[in-house]
């Protein structure tokens, strides 16, 4: 079925009209009794059911039976390809250990680095496929996936090669990011490792063509502002688009650095200062909030309300990873955005669709139900968007389409 009319929709949330900042995020493009026509995986028309049923009389129909329909979700920050697991570390945090204290004692990212170095590419692909199947079941049709669990050339390339293979064998569209500057490897210093990334690893990753973005963990005790700037400037000169983990543990100024360098996104932002909120609001750098991570770590949430009210472009993503956030639960993410971060349902959907697409460079093809976009959409077992946080943490996804093909349900 490569030509069909999607009809009998209870509420159609298009998230159309382009990337949104500030007050505009409240406009999620909700349409009562809407419909849209799909041909060859692309949306050809969007309008009222009555109008489109007349125009496309005789074409195949997909009836949603009165259900809510939204664009496919775009998870713009994940670490979904890795070796090993860190359940004991999670238990340590439950007993009172902090994330940074676990990391400083040789756990954390270092533990996953050892497991990922030991894993074969085939093992990374197999486990990554399992993770992506879970994400698809939550309505995710596009996801960014970072490397960063090798901290050497060979393993980083292995991770990125696994991401490329995964993009070919399962439905979720993947956006690859090189994040070699995820931690300081054992036996060296942050300064020496950044020099190695700049002079050796980044050029080899660029030559491989396996990554679109470059990311860095700009954080006290990891990589400083000056080290992050050096790394990102080199990455930009090699053709990478830029991202950074910023202001997660302390207010270091990473978000402001991202805005100054024209990064596509600055992510985490739990400790972002007022000055950097204003800098993001005046820039096109997307503020990506990751409430599942704050929830899992027991930390305060990023100030999403202040970012939106200040005029920033805000996206929301899972940060699925084996350590600080072993969850890709979109239903829980939606609940946290609405209940604890004081975002409206409309703002949350905007953050998870068109703004998330922009945060991984896919806003022209994904993130909204509009003419010319990929037919990536989700049909729910409820009839209106307000049920998404109301059924708190419960998965209401019934069917998922990717490029006009039923991928789940």
List keywords for this structure.
409 residues; alpha/beta; 38% helix; eight-stranded parallel β-sheet; single chain; eight-stranded mixed β-sheet; 16 strands
Question: How would you describe what is shown here?
Answer:
The protein is an alpha/beta fold and 409 residues long. It contains 16 helices and 16 strands. The chain has helices at residues 49-55, 87-94, 99-104, 109-118, 121-137, 153-169, 190-208, 225-237, 254-261, 274-281, 291-297, 304-310, 330-339, 345-352, 354-359, 387-390; strands spanning 3-13, 30-32, 34-39, 42-48, 60-71, 73-75, 140-146, 173-181, 213-218, 241-246, 265-268, 286-289, 314-316, 377-380, 397-402, 405-408. Strands 1, 2, 3, 4, 5, 14, 15 and 16 form an eight-stranded mixed sheet that branches. Strands 6-7-8-9-10-11-12-13 form an eight-stranded parallel sheet. Strand 9 (213-218), helix 8 and strand 10 form a beta-alpha-beta unit. Helix 5 (121-137) crosses helix 6 (153-169) and helix 7 (190-208) runs parallel beside helix 8. It is globular and about 70 Å long. It starts with a strand and ends with a strand. The mean pLDDT is 96.
Layout of strands and helices, then pairs:
Elements lengths: L2 E11 L16 E3 L1 E6 L2 E7 H7 L4 E12 L1 E3 L11 H8 L4 H6 L4 H10 L2 H17 L2 E7 L6 H17 L3 E9 L8 H19 L4 E6 L6 H13 L3 E6 L7 H8 L3 E4 L5 H8 L4 E4 L1 H7 L6 H7 L3 E3 L13 H10 L5 H8 L1 H6 L17 E4 L6 H4 L6 E6 L2 E4 L1
Parallel strand pairs: 1-5, 6-7, 7-8, 8-9, 9-10, 10-11, 11-12, 12-13
Antiparallel strand pairs: 1-2, 1-3, 3-4, 5-14, 14-15, 15-16
């Amino acid at each position: 079925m490569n030509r069909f009319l999607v009809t009998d929709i209870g509420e159609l949330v298009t998230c159309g009209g382009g990337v949104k900042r500030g007050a505009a995020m409240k406009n999620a493009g909700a349409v009562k009794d809407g419909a849209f026509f799909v041909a060859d995986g692309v949306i050809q028309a969007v309008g009222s059911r009555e109008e489109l049923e007349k125009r496309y009389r005789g074409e195949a129909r997909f009836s949603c039976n009165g259900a809510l329909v939204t664009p496919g979700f775009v998870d713009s920050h994940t670490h979904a390809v890795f070796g090993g697991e860190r359940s004991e570390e999670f238990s340590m945090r439950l007993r009172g250990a902090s994330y940074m204290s676990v990391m400083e004692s040789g756990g954390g990212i270092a533990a996953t680095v050892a497991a990922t170095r030991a894993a074969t590419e085939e093992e990374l692909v197999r486990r990554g496929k399992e993770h992506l199947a879970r994400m698809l079941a939550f309505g995710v049709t596009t996801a960014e996936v970072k490397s960063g669990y090798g901290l050497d050339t060979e393993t980083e390339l292995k991770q990125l090669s696994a991401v490329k293979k995964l993009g070919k064998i399962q439905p979720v569209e993947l956006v690859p990011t090189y994040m070699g500057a995820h931690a300081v490897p054992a036996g060296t210093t942050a300064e020496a490792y950044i020099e190695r990334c700049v002079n050796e690893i980044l050029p080899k990753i660029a030559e491989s063509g396996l990554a679109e973005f470059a990311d860095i963990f700009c954080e006290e005790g990891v990589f400083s502002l000056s080290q992050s700037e050096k790394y990102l400037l080199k990455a930009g000169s090699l053709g990478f688009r830029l991202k950074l983990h910023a202001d997660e543990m302390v207010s270091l100024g990473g978000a402001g650095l991202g805005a100054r360098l024209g990064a596509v996104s600055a992510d985490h932002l739990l400790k972002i200062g007022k000055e950097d909120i204003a800098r993001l609001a005046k820039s096109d750098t997307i503020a990506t909030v990751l409430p599942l991570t704050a929830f899992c770590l027991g930390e305060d949430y990023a100030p999403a309300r202040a970012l939106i009210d200040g005029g920033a472009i805000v996206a929301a993503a899972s940060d699925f990873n084996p350590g600080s956030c072993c969850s890709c639960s979109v239903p829980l993410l939606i609940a946290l955005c609405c209940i604890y971060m004081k975002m409206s349902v409309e703002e949350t959907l905007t953050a998870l669709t068109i703004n998330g697409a922009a945060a991984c460079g896919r806003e022209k093809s994904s993130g909204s139900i509009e003419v010319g976009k990929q037919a990536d959409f989700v049909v729910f077992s409820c009839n209106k968007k307000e049920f998404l946080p109301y059924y708190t943490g419960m998965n209401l996804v019934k069917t998922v389409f990717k490029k006009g093909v039923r991928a789940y349900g």
